[in-house]
DNA sequence: AATGCGCCCAACCGCCCGCTC
DNA sequence: AGAGCGGGCGGTTGGGCGCAT
């Protein structure tokens, strides 16, 4: 099947959007939502193709988009996520609330590739395909920057003006001997399985399969949420709402504020764990 | 002041995938 | 089963801008 090129948009406008067009699109979507992108231009009275409308909305007009320069922490996260996910920009964007795949792609090509160029990899890197990138085991996301970001994301303001404040949220971390456990919930139910409660003589790696996510993320029973330990490998933390690839507000509404889950994904160096899609 | 050059980023293009009929 | 369609994704483009000469 050969799809007709988007040249059915003959006579339709291309190029930069004007403020007037933006206004029309925003007000239409705000009052009607976007059901069928292809139908939107007609219904809204825009001389654009539906695809152009969708891109304009998702990359620029969406209210939950975080504008402005990327922080160093965000850039570090992108580098790390790119290491894990490759050029899957949408997957990376899903883990960086408020940032779009297009934006991340641009930042990667304009800034981050240069940054990595200056990085001298250790000799005999086993991965010669991208020898300029740091190896997984050389980056530890679990640093103060990331935790301050997490705290900020939960308590605002970066989650957006409409996000509920969670003054009682807290993050607990326990680290010892390169093992760590982290859990975040709202309210007083912070559940941290202390390392000393685990059998630290073993490398405690949870069995993570499809049922792990559904069993643990869909329940309001925090106590059943199993946090994982890891040995010397990298730890990556993702917000639950980001995993769901939805806006903070949407995800929070869906969860009905039952809880926030931040969880660790432990990845063996060179043995990447594919994150489940929700 | 004029010109050239490189960078940035919004927008586009083409392809793929999943759903519906 | 497969055609048709909408939506999503990654790669690419080109206009605007700032800086250097």
From TrEMBL:
Subcellular location(s) of the protein: Nucleus
Principal subcellular localisation of the protein: nucleus
One BP annotation, GO: green leaf volatile biosynthetic process
Keywords: DNA-binding, Nucleus, Repeat, Transcription, Transcription regulation
Domain HTH myb-type: start-end pairs: 9-61, 62-116
The UniProt record lists the keyword Nucleotide-binding: no
GO MF entries: transcription cis-regulatory region binding
Region (Disordered): 117-173
Keyword Transcription belongs to the record: yes
Myb-like domain sequence ranges: 9-61, 62-112
A GO-annotated cellular component: nucleus
Bias (Polar residues): 120-152, 160-173
PROSITE patterns noted in UniProt: HTH_MYB, MYB_LIKE
CDD domains: SANT
InterPro entries assigned: Homeodomain-like_sf (IPR009057), Myb_dom (IPR017930), Myb_TF_plants (IPR015495), SANT/Myb (IPR001005)
Protein known as: Uncharacterized protein
Source species: Anisodus acutangulus
Lineage: Eukaryota, Viridiplantae, Streptophyta, Embryophyta, Tracheophyta
